[in-house]
Amino acid sequence: MLVLENRATYIRRELQAKVLKLFFAGSLVSDIDDLPRTLYPRKADAIRCCIYKDRAITAYRLMAILGVSIEDEPDDPLPLREYARRALERSTVTEPVLTVIDEGCSACVQNNYFVTNACRGCVARPCSVNCPREAISFQGDRAKIDPAACVNCGRCQGVCPYNAIVYQPVPCEEGCPVGAIKKDDRGREFIDYALCIFCGRCTRACPFGAIMERFQMIDVAKHILADRPVVAMVAPSIVGQFPGALGQTVAGIRQIGFDAVLEVASGADVTAQNEAAEFVERLEKGDAMMGTSCCPAYTEAVRKHAPDFQKYVSSTRTPMSYTAETAAQQYPDAVKVFIGPCIAKKFEGIHDDNVDYVLTYEELGAFLMARGIDTASLEETVFDATTATVHGRGFPVSCGVTGAVEHYIDGQVSVEPVLIDGLKKKGLNQLRAFGKGKAPGNLIEVMSCEGGCICGPGVVSNPKTTQRALKAFLAQADDNPPAGEATP
Amino acid sequence: MSAKVQVQICVGTACHIMGAADLITIEDLLAEPLRDRVEVKGVTCIGLCKDETCGKPPFVIIDGETLSEATLDKVLRCIEQQVQRQVGGR
Prior knowledge:
The complex is a heterodimer of chains A (about 500) and B (about 90).
Chain A: H1 7-24, H2 28-31, H3 35-39, H4 51-65, H5 80-89, E1 98-100, E2 113-115, H6 126-130, E3 136-139, E4 142-145, H7 155-159, E5 165-167, H8 171-175, E6 181-183, E7 189-191, H9 201-205, E8 211-213, H10 217-225, E9 230-234, H11 246-256, E10 260-263, H12 264-284, E11 290-291, H13 296-305, H14 319-330, E12 335-340, H15 344-350, E13 357-360, H16 361-370, H17 390-393, H18 400-409, E14 417-421, H19 425-434, E15 443-447, H20 463-476
Parallel strand pairs in A: 9-10, 9-12, 11-15, 12-13, 14-15
Antiparallel strand pairs in A: 1-8, 2-5, 3-4, 6-7
Helix pairs in contact in A: 1-4, 1-10, 1-16, 12-14, 12-18
Chain B: E1 5-10, H1 13-23, H2 26-29, H3 32-35, E2 38-43, E3 60-62, E4 65-67, H4 72-89
Parallel strand pairs in B: 1-2
Antiparallel strand pairs in B: 1-3, 3-4
């Protein structure tokens, strides 16, 4: 499960707010090159080997925050002001949505098994006897694993009578469900985009913060100061992300400068209704099952890693897609910005003509901080023209989508839900197996993030808190009119 | 019995984003003998985030003393010091 309470999160959030503060003060280009130095002045305690490395890595982080793909830049990057200028001039954002700060990668262990000094160099030496690759030799009175020969089978750890062999994970690789993050010949990580599903887990798993999403905050910020109206489309997992009531967060979003704030839960209701109809139709036609379609990391995982399951994935569009379509009709000249917990949505957004930009809640938080907005002190306002019901609003926790779809199926066919909560290697294998035509149920809900969208990499609040907040919100919103019946 | 140590955790937006949400759980982490001596409260934005000379969020005020870049560890240590001061002062 996602744990965000750490220094890497702190640094990332602080830098985002600083960049936007400079932007709104009109001094982004002139002052951004000073940031690394002001954050790590000569007398500061270095986090890494020295303040110069801290400053260099900070500069790379700022590049990612400006939306740069670091891998594409020269070894000796340009001054930050140049990247800031480019960010202010560009009209679109590009793929890939992630970037690796290879200078920041600590090049974690090659092998996951490591002999500690608890080894007593015993006579029995079961580690070396049971090693299938002759990877263990004895140097002095201690076992040593030859990294070139070791295949990470873990047998040595299992047989050591002193528990002297430990398992050392490589956090980013461990987090990646599809083996897309790998070591180069220097032991530093890179992302193989042919395999990557953009779930973003590696970005929050790396203890060095060496993998980042490419932020789109500057792109949105410049539109906020420009003439075209800017519309925010806010995902249902927003509940509990910021202090105060939901209406106060909506007010905060307006105060940032968004001209309209739409509730993506409205689109979620449309997704649920259409998935329900599609489910009934598919089952009547003889399909064995249907998979949900709203999580972009999962649908990308099916496309790249479980193609046999593709035919079962619902062709219904995502809540973001329906909401953006409505927004395009209502506000034809507007810049449309989706705001959610998700990094994979940045990828989905690039491929959706109705979506201009995708921000995470963290980026939204940076806007609030830069604008000096305290949500809890604001007068509540409501979403513009919402048609959302509790069903759409319940999407962002695991089982929420199933519940909503089941509601709209309304007993027409029998639903046997199967839940893959958090896409890992096991879940992928399940999807591959289901692709052969057999599953222990007929409605397959897949959430790439364990716990659902409220546990996405772009959230601000601890999922335990937001889960409670969402529950309370749904209980109180129980009497909302069903989709389609709301007055505009 | 001396007055309780007053712990005010700012839960304004900036402090919340920078980690205050986590700090609120501090009550659960207090050692048993400390619990009755400490009162933990979340308070609305105290405005320190607007002034860079005050340090960085999250802010916590313990018996009038301001902690910036507060972490669970920093806050716990400060509470312990404060309790000791009270006990010693009696």
